Amino acid sequence: MQDDMILDRTRLIENTDIVRDWLSRFEASLCAGDREQLLDLFAADSHWRDLLAFTWNITPHVGAQEIVQGLLEAQMSAHTSMFALDTNRTPPRRVTRTGVDVIEAIFGFESRVGRGHGIVRILADQPDRAWVLMTSLDELKGYEEPINGRRPSGQAYSRAFGGENWTEKRQRERAFEDREPAVLIVGAGQAGLSLAARLRLQGVDTLVVERLERVGDVWRNRYHSLALHNRVPLNHLPYMPFPPSWPLYLPKDMLGNWLETYAWAMECNVWTDTEFKGASYEEAAGHWSARVQRRGHPERLLHPRHIVFANGIVGKPKPARAPGLEDFAGQILHTHDYRDGSAWKGKSALVLGVGTSGHDIAQDLHAHGANVSLIQRGSITVASVEAAGINHSLYYNEGLPLEDCDLIATASTYPLLVRGYQLAVEKMLEMDKALIAGLRARGMKLDIGEDNTGHQMKLRRRFGGYYLNCGCSELIINGQVGLIQYEDIERFVNSGLKMKDGRIYKADLLVTATGYQNQNEVVRELLGENIADKIGPVWGLAKDGELSNMFRPTPQQGLWFMGGGLAHARIYSQYVALLIKANEVGLIA
Prior knowledge:
Layout (H helix, E strand, L loop, with lengths): L1 H31 L2 H5 L2 E10 L6 E5 L1 H15 L2 E5 L7 E5 L2 E11 L3 E10 L6 E11 L13 H7 L5 H10 L7 E4 L3 H12 L4 E4 L7 H4 L31 H14 L4 E2 L2 E9 L4 E8 L5 E3 L3 E4 L4 E4 L13 E4 L13 E5 L3 H12 L3 E6 L4 E4 H8 L9 H8 L4 H18 L1 H9 L12 H9 L3 E4 L2 H6 L4 E4 L3 E5 L2 E4 L4 E3 L2 E4 L3 E3 H9 L1 H7 L23 E3 L4 H19 L5
């Protein structure tokens, strides 16, 4: 035991010395503009991902030559310095990342306008060369968040606002009767509220509009059996972690109620029952003219300088199209409108589509006593939630503080993500060998992604095409939930499905799990053809491997997008908030 402690201490000292030496040489070379010395500090196959600190954007670089060129160009305006190991964060340690043995460390630094942290991964067998570098802006100098030691006193509220108490102050702030919001956020889900909370602490006046009756209804109104498919440690919101007693996989109503609590506690200004009806950008004035309609109030014309779409990454439900569907006499529901299967006990149901929602709804219908079959239109990726945790919680199962996990998780460029997912899929397939074999035996068409990257890259590329098994796969394998291949169908008929071999599948209900229109179509409808064409796709892969138009400046001044899961909201709301604040105070145009 004593020998192990001495060995661990020796390794920590060695790792610390290696990282400190690298950071010292890196800063000296960068500040001197010495290209050759910088090149000597990076492996040929190296990666740098900058999150605002150098480039005011989410900017990946691949290869030593590209990295050094990018660093030298950005340093001329960023003026970064004071690179040093942060002794208050996870200490340097030897780990294996994407199959490569590295010394991984967290460092701090400053730029001309802000302070940040970063990750460096130095090759264990070449301790003078970095393989991965990530630089992240944390805060702007002079605009630090009033939290922890800088928190306001309770008395400050009444002194600052002419004797108002907190409740009166909040009522006045939410009303926006005497001012215009600087930022209008569309959608009060996890993305909109995370950003609103961060902007408030940046001193940026923000209004969130939500079309549903209550904050959190975006989750409450989903089908009753819905729960998150990844574990709670991944899903905390900024500033307010979930209670430690909460379940690993959160039920949707718990999450909906938490969002409502979060909006109250973080003092987010939210108008519920409010429709965002459209906007146009006034170039000369530098603001939007945005129309919102609050139930029971006249339409309001607002003039925010920024509009953020935080209404997810999809729009209206896509209607199903299939031969003879108009002849079907049973009830047709899109997954968006499905709540639970209690009304269908003893009846027959079909679910068109085998994505996550399709599986979940089939499982719910079966649990309520319905005779249900899934209709598969295309190949799908299936993994157990346990196996999927290899990807989802890869860095969050190492016992590190959440803020350190978030830094580590954001360090990978697109090529590293692909490589990492491919390695994870190999392990997942081994874990799920029996599950996959059982599904294939029932005739389900399965794949592991176009380049063996599994469900995670499908999520990034098209936000669908996979299912993380929460029990429905076993029902299919055991024959308790039927499986029909779409190409075997001739057409829908009055009583259900007519197959090409003449069989009839009778059905009282058809649930269409046919997805939603993409966000670009939402933009086209609400902001017009010109802006939709100008910005292009939202979500999916941009040319640099990052998510298209998400969490970063778009081609349209004052237009931003937030979306994805809770981890996306927590991590990337920081960068969108900093970008908007920097724009507001004139640090960037």
